[in-house]
Amino acid sequence: MSHSSHAPTKSPPRQQPKRAAIASVMGGALEYYDFALFASAAAIIFPKLFFHDSEAAVLASFATFGAAYLARPLGAIIISHIGDRQGRKHALLLTISLMGVATFLIGCLPTYDSIGILAPALLVTLRLVQGFSAGGELAGASSLTMEHAPEGRRAFVSSFSLVGVGIGMVMANAIMIPITALPDDILYTWGWRLPFWLSAVVLVIGIWVRRSLDEPEAFENAETSKAPPFIAVFRENPQGVIRVALCNLFAVVQTVTTVFGLSYAIQQGVNSTTMVAIVTASQFISIFARPLCGLAADRFGRKPVFIFGAASSGLLIFPFFSAIASGNVFMIAVSMILLTGVAISFADGAYPAFFSEMFNAKIRYTGMAIGLQIGILLSGFSPTIGRALQGEDTANWIPVAIMTAVCSAIAVLAALTAKETFRTPLEQLGIKNTRAEASTIADPDKATIPAS
């Protein structure tokens, strides 16, 4: 049965690319406002407030950051089910509401000194809610914007879901610069709470924008699968899920640089406010770079743009850590901007369309969401793994860089097995991606570019 069985067969197009892009920006901004805010707080503030500033406090704080990634796969399954059955809009209203409320409540939590072990327990609980929400956000935003986009501009329009990511990280880091500069007696009492409370503003605006959206025509005209989307996607296109999961290992670069890199720099004596400012500058550049890379993916194809971004970011991680080890602030800034402002933007600009186009409309949300969250599990715990790889020598960054580069290399190899879809009409996407095509993973030469 079609989602629009009650409507005339030939309904007029209801593409809303601008409004869909704005809605995606708002959701991405809220999700990654929290990501960057929690990342900075996990490295600078939470060890003292929630883990009693013990020797293992930083490691425990990083583990709390990673806890959200455990809830992401469950969120991906449940929220994407809503998105593929009831509509993208309903699912995305749920994600933004959960994320906004949980982020605000973190700012209301009592600390370890007030309620003891219950404080980190409550922090982990709210972090799990955030992870559950994040599990369905980006895949839904990418599907929604891609399906609303005009032909030939799918990568450009869907890249705005990642523009929101950049805006969220810039907002969080820009706020953290004056916050971390506060005197300790203010910072560790009420000052750290302010950025979390400010998420309420983004939440209200985001809900208002998303409520005004129509469902994409591609979704409403899609035939609903008899099996639940989670079952259907593994029947029809398991190789797509695996490919997205492997490609998304490039996200380890982002987490290692913004979370582990920040903590490592502080350990090496770099001023925390300076590091947050550098991260902010690189993310600000990415806001403009990602749509340009989306345009490139519409012009030259998803695969070359994504592969260039994943490969170059894996290589640039070495000069990034080398610069931190040297303590040269100028070189840290240059390497950070090249890595997270430029290189990663190539992959980020392409992958919302690249990943979502691997699936047909009836399982698109589910396929991309599950693949993303399986792949991102390692990303969530990469700061913890990185700290463990350092061992007793906290100046030893080489094992962490190698781990990050290997993840980027796996992402590149997985992307090479994918079909190029930038010339494929929207209604034909994912039609041929069945089990018979699974051999493409082993033999990428079988993949062909559809005729324009």
Topology diagram in text:
Layout: H1 17-44, H2 46-50, H3 57-85, H4 88-106, H5 112-115, H6 118-148, H7 154-158, H8 160-180, H9 184-187, H10 194-197, H11 199-211, H12 217-220, H13 229-236, H14 238-247, H15 251-267, H16 272-300, H17 302-326, H18 329-356, H19 364-390, H20 398-416
Helix pairs in contact: 1-3, 1-4, 1-6, 1-8, 1-11, 1-15, 3-4, 3-6, 3-19, 4-6, 4-11, 6-19, 8-16, 13-19, 14-19, 14-20, 15-16, 15-17, 15-19, 15-20, 16-17, 16-18, 17-18, 17-20, 19-20
Task: Describe the protein's architecture and organization.
The structure is a single chain. Helices cover 73% and strands 0% of the residues. The chain has helices spanning 17-44, 46-50, 57-85, 88-106, 112-115, 118-148, 154-158, 160-180, 184-187, 194-197, 199-211, 217-220, 229-236, 238-247, 251-267, 272-300, 302-326, 329-356, 364-390, 398-416. The protein has a single domain (17-445), classed as MFS general substrate transporter like domains (Growth Hormone, Chain: A). α1 packs parallel to α15 (251-267), α4 (88-106) packs antiparallel against α6 (118-148) and α14 runs antiparallel to α20 (398-416). With 452 residues, the protein is an all-alpha fold. The chain crosses the membrane at residues 21-46, 58-79, 91-112, 118-139, 160-181, 187-209, 244-266, 272-293, 305-324, 330-351, 363-385, 397-418.
